[in-house]
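Predict structure. Chain length: 130.
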Amino acid sequence: MEINDITGLILDRSVMIHRELGPGLLESVYQRILAYELRKAGLKVDKEVPIPVSWDGRIIDESFRADLIVESKVLVELKSIEKTAPVHRKQVITYLKLTGLPVGLLINFGAPLLKEDFHRIANDAPNLKP
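Prediction complete.
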């Protein structure tokens, strides 16, 4: 499946979930339901994936976690807050650089309308993955 197809399916399922549940729940609720829906659609979904930080040929930290990685191609970072800030985009960009994945989605289930706080972020930086 192509990246655009994957991101389109993620957006479709996210909108469906948001319409059904609305904003205001914990991020973990949306994460579990979105992972379930994507798996039901036949996609490979990994949750809470450790993102290592490497330096000098060694892993020096593994405290970062991607909420979801779909089909080993798309990183998904979920929020359930009033509005995302530039730091949340920077978080996705950092994760993309460290993993080498081509695209990330920042989805805020706390927004009144999901499309108002949904961001597709391309990895246009050098790959930092060892």
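Summary: The beta strands are 45-55, 58-70, 74-79, 103-108, 118-122.
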